[in-house]
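Comment thread on ticket #2218

A.B. wrote:
> Attaching the input chain for the structure job we discussed in standup.
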Amino acid sequence: MKKNKTNKKKYFITGGKTGGHIYPALSIALKLSENENNKVFYIGNKKNMEYELVKKYPQLQFLSIDFEGMPRKISLKLFLWGFKLIFSTLKSIFYILKYNPHAIFGTGGFITFPVLFAGYILNKPVMIHDCDTVPGLVSRVVSRFAKKVSLNFEEAKKFLKCKNIKINGNPIRNEFFIENNIYKDYNSDCLNILVMGGSQGAIKINEIAINVFQKLINQGYKINVVVQTGVKNYEKALKLIGNKNNPKITLKPYLDEIWNELRNAHLVIGRSGSLSLSEICATSTPSILIPYPFSASNHQEKNARELEKANCSICICERDLTCDVLEKVVVDLINNRQKLFEMSKNTSKYSKPNALNDIINEFLSLADNNYN
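C.D. wrote:
> Ran it. Output below, let me know if you need it in another format.
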């Protein structure tokens, strides 16, 4: 294989569309870029959220391909999608030939497939990471030619074909981890509560949470609430507040540095995607989890039930979610600080602070072995 002639080592990182794919990839990219001898390229779609996030970091170079999820029904859209797949693969081949990366790393989402497949065609070492108990379609296909696979869950192994699989945990940024694993202080007079419906937001969670917390604040409960509404749902959430502007409730369309909110939160209410749970555990935050009801193989409820069994979380399925149900659970926790403290301690046991470095080391060894 042709060697890179420059001293800089080059790496392609790809992951797109949703936060569960983007944030692990971005964590890997930023960690690699800390070494001035590395040049890191992030490949995604300029139309997706990954572009807005990556462009904030000048040390990363963004390369765009116009590709998206596969239509599930036979139609003209599926036919056109096939052409986009071919074109995106050819463009990825062009990028690889132009920049000659040492290795390619992907975290899922359809946007990653043309890049990883192009790497396979050109005999570049490919590594992937999958966050979920049930790996996505792209991970299942790419595992057949990937040199290494990193996972968060042991049970995900049975879906994949790669011979070199390791359970590392999810790669999340160091900012999430509380120094020296210090537990949260529940002696505070006022509790901070964070509501987040995933990177895209969730209308039902927004509506019920805002109604419940407006009521509790009016009743005199000492709480500060931050709601990540999702960009598309922000205006609707503002209308729920209406003229009842409450300084105790802050609405944010999106939280760029969500680790700050999680580290300050005494309680979080949100979805139970694998990456979100890794961030919750890293910050030792007790949680009320409301699984996304349409997740593949219902993996979000499985995730939530595991943490509930360990007394880290309380799971409420969305079909059961009402203002009365959420209010009762929240009030019970607010009035039982010892329970919140115990949940915080239990949650911290699931923290995996070495996951990012372990995955980076695996990836670098793959690249080094290929170029030595």
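A.B. wrote:
> Thanks. Noting for the ticket: The CA atoms of residues 170 and 328 lie 32 Å apart.
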